[in-house]
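Bug report (template v2)

What were you trying to do?
Predict the complex of my protein with magnesium ion.

What happened?
Run completed; filing so the output is reviewed.

Input:
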Amino acid sequence: MACRIKGKVLKGVEGYGNPLVPGDRVCFDREPGHPHRGLIRDVEERKTLLTRFNRQGQSSQILAANVDLVLCVTTPVSPPFRPRFLDRVLLQADKAGIPPVIVCNKQDLCAGGRADPVTEERLRDWSRIGYPVIRVSARTGEGMEELQGAMAQRFSVLIGQSGVGKSSLINALVPGLYMRVGSLNEKYDRGNHTTSMSVLLEIPSLGAGTGIIDTPGMRGFLPDRLEAEELLFYMREFAPLAGTCTYGLSCSHRSEAGCKIREAVSSGLIHEDRYENFLRIHEELTGLGYGV
Ligand SMILES: Nc1nc2c(ncn2[C@@H]2O[C@H](COP(=O)(O)OP(=O)(O)OP(=O)(O)O)[C@@H](O)[C@H]2O)c(=O)[nH]1
Ligand SMILES: [Mg+2]
Ligand SMILES: [Zn+2]
């Protein structure tokens, strides 16, 4: 039923750029004189909350509420593979306590079933540090059974850049449904931001309690409600090394002697690209100064 918020503000959800999102459970009354419309008076406490920091609005933006799984969608090509974007989504999912799964779509575009060496190396590394990787093609249906297995009886949210095929995956998962799917910009090989609003769909064919949220493609992802000092603890292969450097937790992991993080990069325990990304995110978080 189409509902709107009763009054101006909803209690309990203050402090976010957007008060309600797909996945929220609400209480509503029927609108007097309009039997098919409702007035939302309350939102249930959220079990999980996936957010990102909105630089323009200088606020937390909620992406989905009450989801059990974050499907981080990427592609080896078209649009180009952007592992550093995905690292940020993985980080935020871990911070939010929602298990992430990497979904590498457009497998049909990989000659011989293998992506280019750079993509393959990063996919292998994510898998090594504990993130499940599922390779699929919304076009050919390859890998969809494995994805369905991961999604069954859970509520998932699809997160990824524009054009990676989030809406196409939903179309492949739900026969008879036709979500609007966009084309790629020929000049820039990027998506055109086809989905403009998040939507939640139930998929009873995958078992009771199965649902998925499609979201609009994002350009960037700034971690939310994460202090620079905490970053280390939310990067899975870094976390066990926290505090072990000669300078302990005050080490910047850039040039100090006895830095265990840099040693781990040299020995291959931490991927070079994840380390570079760690430094960049750390710098950004220092600049943002949450809570100041
Ligand atoms: N070759 C190939 N093309 C695909 C596949 N999945 C999606 N596409 C194409 O990729 C383009 C973008 O797909 P969308 O589903 O609109 O992507 P999206 O992630 O929803 O994009 P936004 O809504 O803009 O965030 C379309 O032209 C799709 O046909 C796939 O598995 N293989
Ligand atoms: Mg879409
Ligand atoms: Zn260090």
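What did the reviewer find?
The mean pLDDT is 93. Helices lie at 83-96, 117-128, 144-151, 166-173, 260-267, 272-288.
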